[in-house]
Design a protein that fits this description.
Blueprint: E1 8-15, H1 20-30, E2 34-43, E3 48-56, H2 62-75, E4 79-84, E5 90-95, H3 100-110, E6 117-123, H4 129-134, E7 139-141, H5 149-162, E8 167-170, H6 179-185, E9 189-193, H7 205-212, E10 216-223, E11 233-240, H8 247-270, E12 274-277, E13 280-283
Length: 285
């Protein structure tokens, strides 16, 4: 039986019990699949089992095996999400004035690094319109403040619906998404925070870090939740600083980290490697 070049990647979790790895591997083998990658983790405190398994089904059986694997996981008492390698989720970028993460993400996408289709850019400023349209991406300028937030978010939601967006990336978008908008979006959002959360949450973290005389600075990519800067963390990184570095130096070094960390988090999400559980993540890298 000939295997297919398309693969399926399943993320599953549930109560730990003996034989889960063997049952999953046996199910795939019995149906002629070829396992490409498999990894698992056990939370000893909670006694929860986590697994990511990617396999190539026989030709012509991708959709049927996807459906059947969901049934298997449910029979094993597991929560599951299965994605096809051919899927290209539609992505919207939210930006403000800072351009470094915006350019980095778009250029990586154009270079084929992301399994996605970028479909639009939404901003509360007009600064990046020319660059966005130069990349061939439609640009929507929607000013937003405390007085018009509900109306502005309504316009943003209409744009997301129009473009059938399945993932939102906050590429240094300097506005807080309301709980109502997050609920109505119907898709995850990933933010890059210019701080090693939970330290220095909120505004101007580099200024906060400078005032505290820290010896390392960091950044955090996380899923957006209704609680400010408290969503499940996907990826973090740090760099060393010293007394010779001013705020401008911290911001320059931080921008390099922000690009790399956000890109890695986006890549992992699009490859179905991130399992969000109890406001934490298990990342199968």
């Amino acid at each position: 039986m000939k295997t297919c070049t398309e693969t399926l990647a399943a993320l599953l979790y549930g109560p730990d019990k003996p034989g889960l790895v063997a049952q999953v591997a046996g199910w795939i083998h019995e149906r002629g699949g070829n396992i490409i990658h498999a990894d698992q983790h056990r939370d000893a405190e909670e006694r929860i089992f986590f697994q990511r398994v990617e396999w190539a089904p026989p030709g012509g059986e991708v959709e049927s095996q996807l459906t059947a694997f969901v049934v298997l996981a449910q029979e094993l008492g597991m929560q599951v999400r299965v994605a096809r390698s051919s899927e290209r989720p539609k992505v919207a970028l939210f930006v403000s004035r800072a351009a470094h993460c915006f350019h980095d993400l778009v250029l990586r996408w154009k270079a084929g690094e992301f399994r996605a289709e970028m479909v639009c850019v939404i901003s509360n400023h007009d600064d990046l319109r020319e660059a966005s349209e130069g990349y061939g991406l439609p640009y929507y300028h929607i000013p937003i403040d405390k007085e018009n937030q509900a109306r502005a978010e309504g316009e943003q939601l209409e744009i997301l619906k129009q473009h059938e967006v399945e993932l939102v990336l906050l590429a240094r978008y300097m506005q807080i998404l309301s709980a109502e908008m997050l609920e109505q979006m119907g898709c995850p959002a990933i933010n890059i925070h210019h701080s090693f959360l939970p330290a220095f949450a909120g505004a101007k973290p580099y200024h906060q870090a400078y005032r505290h005389g820290v010896k390392i600075i960091g950044v955090t990519a996380h899923y957006v939740s209704a609680e400010l800067d408290a969503g499940p963390i996907i990826q973090q990184d740090v760099t060393h600083v010293n007394h010779r570095h001013g705020v401008a130096d911290l911001m320059r070094k931080g921008r390099d980290l922000e690009k790399a960390v956000l890109a890695q988090a986006v890549r992992w999400h699009l490859e179905n490697r991130v399992l969000d559980y109890n406001n934490k993540t298990v990342v199968f890298d």
